Amino acid sequence: MHKTYSMTTKIRVQNDYIATFPAITICNINFFTTEKATELLPFCSHIFNQSSPNDSDFQIKFRNCLENQGLIKNNKSIYGDSKEKLIKSLWFNTNALNLDEFVYFYHSEYGNCYTFNSGVLQNGSRIDLHQVIRSRRTDGLILSLNLGIDEGLKEFTSDLGGIIFIHNQTSSPYSVSGVLVGAGLVTNIGLKRTFSKSEPKPYSKCDGNTKNPESHESELYKLILAKNGHYTQTFCIEQCIQKLLIQDCNCIGSVIPSVFDKEPCDIYGECFDKTINKFSTDKNINKECIDLCPLECEKQTFDQTISVQTLNETDNFSMVYIYYESLVSTVVEESPTTSPADLISSIGGVLGLFLGMSFLSLVEIIEVVFRLIFIFFDRKKVGHRTILVSNKI
C-alpha cells in the first residue's frame, strides 16, 4: 500500500522591474561545415548514395565513418563553424557586442557551439550577467547568423539551419530542447519565465538537493556534477544509456551527450541498435536508470513564443531576435496541505472532541478526584468519632 500526501499548489504572478537575461547557446545544425571536412570526403566515398543526393542522414553517416577510422579523434573543432564565421553581427539592448562574450561549447551532436551570457569570457574571466528592464523585441539579443556550409558539402547536405538553446546560467544546453532557426528567415523568440519548486520525497517524486555531490549515493550523479558542474535528471538518464552502451558494446553513442571518454559506436551496428531499443519504453528506463538519477526539486524554465518571417537576403543568412515578452514571471510552489504542527493540532482537536479532554476538563477532573478523597477521609473521621462516643456510653 502506498501512502498519499495531500499537497497544496500555489501559483502566483510576480512582476519584476529588472530581469536577468538567460544564457543562449548557438550552433549550426550541421556538424561538418568547413573545407577541412570536405577534404575528408574521399575516405568515406562508400557511404554516398549517388541516386539520392541531399541525404538527410549524410552528416551522421559521414561522422560515423570518420570516427570509426579514427580520422577526427582530435581537433574536431576544425570541421565545424568558427565563432567568426557563424556569428556575423550581434547586439544586446541595441548595443553592439564583442565576440569575446560568446564562449566555446562542444555539443556531442552539433559540434561547435557558442554560449552568450554565461557569466564568463572565453579566457575564463568573470563578467556581470546581462539584464533587461523592458520587454521589447529590440531590447534583447539580436543575431545575424551565417549558416552556410562549404561548397564541397552542399551536394550531400540538404538542410541549412541553426539551433538555439535557451537555458539559465546554472544548467547546460543539454538540459533543454533547442529552437531550430532556418536559413533565409527571421526568427522571433519571445520568452516568459516560470519558476517551480516542489517538496522532496515523500511529498513528491523529487529528491531534494541536487547541487551537492554528497547528497545522493549514485556514482553516476556524482560523476555528472564533477564533469558538468550542474545536474538535471534528463541529462543523467542520457548518461545512464551511455553507461549501458559501454557495458554492452564498449563504446558510446556519438549523437547522445556524454561525460565518458570512449570511442563512438557504429550507430548502424547491431549492438548499438539492440541496446538503444531497450530504452524505447518507460518501463526499461525506470528499471535501469531512475534509481541512479535523482529528480531535481527546483527548476527555471523559459516558455517560448516563436514567429518566423522571410529575410530579404541570401539563403545562407538568418536573423534571430530573442527577448522577454514580459518581465512578469510565474512562480509555482508546492507545500504539504498539512504540516507536522497542523497534524499534531488536528490530533489534539480530535481527541478533545471525542474524549472531552481539554485543559479545563482536566482541571475539573483533578478537582473532583480531590473532593472524593476529601469526602472519603472526612467520612472515615466521622465514623471513628462515632465509635469513640459509643464506647464512652
TrEMBL record:
Keywords: Ion channel, Ion transport, Membrane, Sodium, Sodium channel, Sodium transport, Transmembrane, Transmembrane helix, Transport. Belongs to the amiloride-sensitive sodium channel (TC 1.A.6) family. This is Acid-sensing ion channel 4. It is a multi-pass membrane protein. Its main location: membrane. GO terms for molecular function: ligand-gated sodium channel activity. The lineage of its organism: Eukaryota, Metazoa, Spiralia, Gnathifera, Rotifera. The chain crosses the membrane at residues 350-377. It is found in: Membrane. GO terms for cellular component: plasma membrane. InterPro entries: ENaC, ENaC_CS.
